[in-house]
Design goal:
The chain is α+β, with helices and mostly antiparallel strands. It has two domains: 103 residues, Killer Toxin P4, Chain A (2-Layer Sandwich), CATH 3.30.430; 39 residues. It has a five-stranded mixed sheet. It is elongated and about 100 Å long.
């Protein structure tokens, strides 16, 4: 288990908020699952949120947000927990407690930053040589074009 409790708590909140929005606005079943994958130093967090299907999207999202706000007071720094209300509920754990694949998958900040550096590096490896060679070709063409002597008119003698 991680010793970085604030990071863990923030990622639990991010995961549950993301799947709460998904459940409220992207599915008629008002249900969503999700996970956040970490490096080997951190566990994977699994989450599930659900509202009564007869709630509207806005009421579902509001209900879920209200109970998500209870996490610091009721669940503190625990590695898992759940809050149940009549209209909505959520659960998160560091083990998979539901069947099937997760609807939403979030990456960890460390993996995301590393991935962005790889993408940026790849873009730079492709773009810099292309721009450099294009610039070199343009400069060479302009130099030869200016040095070119005008052709003499051989037909008009």
């Amino acid at each position: 288990m991680t010793t970085d409790v604030p990071l863990f708590a923030n990622l639990v909140n991010e995961l549950l908020s993301t799947i709460a929005d998904w459940a409220a606005y992207n599915t008629p079943r008002m249900f969503a699952t999700g996970e956040v994958n970490f490096t080997t130093d951190f566990p994977t967090i699994y989450g599930l949120v659900q509202c009564r299907p007869d709630l509207g999207a806005d009421r579902c999202q509001q209900c879920l947000q209200e109970i998500l706000n209870l996490i610091p007071a009721w669940l503190g720094q625990k590695a898992g927990g759940r809050v149940l209300r009549v209209d909505c509920n959520f659960r998160y754990e560091v083990y998979k407690f539901y069947d099937g694949t997760s609807i939403r998958q979030l990456g960890s900040p460390t993996a995301g930053e590393k991935g962005n550096k790889n993408v940026t590096g790849l873009v730079l490896k492709i773009a810099v040589p292309l721009v450099s060679s294009s610039l070199l070709i343009c400069v060479t063409y302009i130099c030869f074009w200016k040095r070119r002597k005008p052709a003499k008119n051989l037909l008009c003698k």
